[in-house]
């Protein structure tokens, strides 16, 4: 008798309707969107810092738009407050990002898939986490950094922006510095304004990164790196870190 073995079918993630509880400006072209998650849906929306949500919206012409945005909040916030927070920067011709920045209001309802993505890790208190990030790529990084710091870990963060005014989650980063002291080693890099030092001013090329790393951290002391930003930056940083013989490297490409 022949026996046919079949792989169990994985159920497709289901869309859920979540209500917007707050929309807060972060910069001139970016907002933080907070979603309220009913208690019965919290298990479905449990996540690891670094994962993203996918939104679905029907345009006035009937076309369907789907876009994914990383979570800026932590699993602890979901458990304690029942909220999820995302940072959304408006991009040219961005249908959903433009809608979120100019028209989205508290009380609006969005169709959302549960969290997905592999830009994450199992946070451990005895680890040193490093990150090089540009622009809106800070969104998943602030979730990872917050969770790591709350667990007792150390975080080194190099954050590149055009100017201070274009820096998303600047106030939240200052609060993390205040709360966690020297376990957060935050270094702002400015590409179109003067940075804190000449070394931290200008585009983050591989050559400049080698200088910066030599001044602020030994890459070999970092257990895991998280790189988030445009393709050329992420690729260049990855090559520099690999040449330095550092720990595990996670990458995520972002429109900044």
UniProtKB/TrEMBL annotation:
One of its GO terms (molecular function) is metal ion binding. Pfam families: FAD_binding_6, NAD_binding_1. This is FAD-binding FR-type domain-containing protein. Gene3D superfamilies: Nucleotide-binding domain of ferredoxin-NADP reductase (FNR) module (3.40.50.80), Translation factors (2.40.30.10). Residues 13-122 form the FAD-binding FR-type domain. PROSITE patterns: FAD_FR (PS51384). Its cofactor is FAD. Keywords: 2Fe-2S, FAD, Flavoprotein, Iron, Iron-sulfur, Metal-binding, Oxidoreductase.
């Amino acid at each position: 008798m022949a026996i046919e073995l079949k792989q169990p079918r994985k159920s497709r993630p289901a869309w859920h309707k979540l209500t917007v509880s707050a929309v807060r400006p972060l910069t001139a072209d970016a907002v933080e969107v907070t979603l309220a998650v009913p208690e019965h849906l919290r298990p479905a929306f449990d996540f690891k810092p670094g994962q993203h949500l996918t939104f679905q919206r029907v345009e006035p012409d009937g076309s369907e738009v789907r876009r994914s945005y990383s979570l800026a909040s932590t699993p602890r916030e979901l458990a304690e407050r029942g909220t999820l927070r995302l940072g959304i920067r408006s991009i040219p011709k961005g249908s959903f990002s433009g809608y979120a920045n100019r028209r989205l209001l508290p009380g609006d309802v969005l169709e959302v898939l549960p969290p997905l993505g592999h830009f994450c890790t199992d946070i451990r208190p005895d680890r040193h986490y490093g990150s090089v990030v540009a622009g809106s790529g800070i969104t998943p990084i602030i979730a990872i950094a917050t969770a790591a710091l709350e667990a007792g870990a150390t975080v080194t963060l190099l954050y590149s922006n055009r100017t201070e005014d274009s820096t998303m989650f600047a106030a939240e980063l200052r609060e993390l510095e205040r709360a966690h002291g020297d376990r957060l080693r935050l270094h702002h890099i400015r590409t179109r304004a003067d940075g804190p030092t000449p070394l931290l001013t200008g585009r983050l090329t591989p050559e400049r990164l080698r200088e910066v790393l030599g001044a602020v951290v030994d890459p070999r002391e970092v257990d895991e790196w998280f790189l988030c930003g445009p393709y050329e930056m992420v690729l260049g940083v990855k090559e520099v870190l690999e040449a330095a013989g550092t720990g595990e490297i996670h990458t995520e490409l972002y429109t900044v």
